[in-house]
Amino acid sequence: MPDFRREEQSASAAVEAKDEVGNDDGKPAQAERRRFPRPTTSAIEGPSSPPALQPMFFSTTDLEPTEQFVAWRAYVAPLVDIRLPDNVSPEAGFVANQKAWNLGGMLVVDQSTPAHSYMRSQAKVKANLIDHWHVSMLHSGRTWTEVDGMVSEGQPGKMQLRSLGHPFRGRSTDARTLSLILPRTLLFDVPSSAEIKNNIVVSGALTELLVEYLNIVEMNLPRFVAADLPHVVQTVRDMILACVSSSVAQSAGSEQHSMLVLTERIRRFVEGHLASDDLTVERICRELGISRTRLYQVFEQDGGVHHYIQRRRLLSAHAALSDPSNRTQIVDIAFAVGFSSAAHFSRAFSKEFGYSPREARNLTLPRYPKHAASSSSTGETHPFDEWLRTLSHTR
């Protein structure tokens, strides 16, 4: 029988000899490849920037049931007045939660509430100067909101957009809502912004993409650094405009709708010309092609055209004073928003806000706040209403 072990050893020796001398064809053997360790991820990454944001929390969970509704009503008072359904007692409890993020040019608010009704009255609009766009998307529940006789219905998968500078009222079932609050000027300066109408509901593929993007944004808010925030705000703005411009107006032709469109056109014109010396009734009527009577009707509930213009100028000045990066002299800010006298500006500002322009600058909150609000049970004042008042769009 053949000796397989001896044959195996001979073959192995031949292979070893071939490796030492070369290949079978007499050519020298290829040099052995030397492998170097690859650098680790930590070795090639630079130092990371710290997160820019920390959320502000508010919850009634830890309060006594009899105190919950009262606490929530006081917390949302800068925006709306709320009521319980007729068959619900305040003693039954009102477990509500809110997490808010301030991105400098936009507020992101995640909120869950039991059923209730809400109203932003004309008196409240005039009292707190908040004139932003409010964009809301429901994760769960339904809402019905009425503006000048026109009702919009909110439900998951749809986007609602309305102006906080106009009265509205409505009701909500138990709901969880993701809201965006954006300064009016953020949606200016592009042709599609002319199509934005108050109290509209938008749906479709682009709206679904926006909802998905906002869910991703919300998950990553704790990780964003300061340099990320302007890009996030700009992307959200562009997506909102794309959703609005692709939607079809469903209420064209009605008298109420025509008034809403006209009001928005005038508001946009005033906002875009606050610094002009000749922002007068005559110019507004001429540029927009409307009569004095129509213009006066639009601003009758705002105390008149001149009063509205002055308040918008004061709010613009307040936003500039509240921007930590803006170190422009106060008198120059006054002139930039259309005031011709520093003394007149100071008196009007103090009367409107209850403190002087210099105090407004000294009381400025950080643009990217890094503090979290405590629960209402501590009795501390929340800065959420200050966020609303000082929210501005800076390019």
Blueprint (SSEs and pairs):
Layout: H1 4-21, H2 41-44, E1 56-59, H3 65-75, E2 81-83, E3 97-102, E4 107-113, E5 116-120, H4 122-128, E6 133-140, E7 143-147, E8 150-154, E9 159-163, E10 168-172, E11 175-182, E12 200-202, H5 205-220, H6 229-246, H7 255-272, H8 281-288, H9 292-298, H10 305-321, H11 330-336, H12 342-353, H13 357-362, H14 384-390
Antiparallel strand pairs: 1-3, 2-5, 3-4, 4-11, 5-10, 6-9, 6-11, 7-8, 7-10, 9-12
List keywords for this structure.
395 residues, alpha+beta, Jelly Rolls, seven-stranded antiparallel sheet, five-stranded antiparallel sheet, 14 helices, 12 strands, 39% helix, 16% strand, globular
Number of helices: 14
Let me know the number of strands. Answer: 12
The CATH C-level name of one domain is Mainly Beta
- CATH architecture designation of one domain: Sandwich
Question: Order of strands in the sheet with the most strands?
Answer: 1-3-4-11-6-9-12
CATH fold-type name of one domain: Jelly Rolls
Coarse structural class: alpha+beta
How would you describe this protein?
The chain is an alpha+beta fold. It has a domain at 56-254: Jelly Rolls, CATH 2.60.120.10. It has 14 helices and twelve strands. Strand 7 (143-147) and strand 8 (150-154) form a beta hairpin. Helix 5 (205-220) runs antiparallel to helix 6. The radius of gyration is 31 Å and the shape is globular.
Task: Describe this structure in a few short sentences.
This protein has 14 helices and twelve strands.
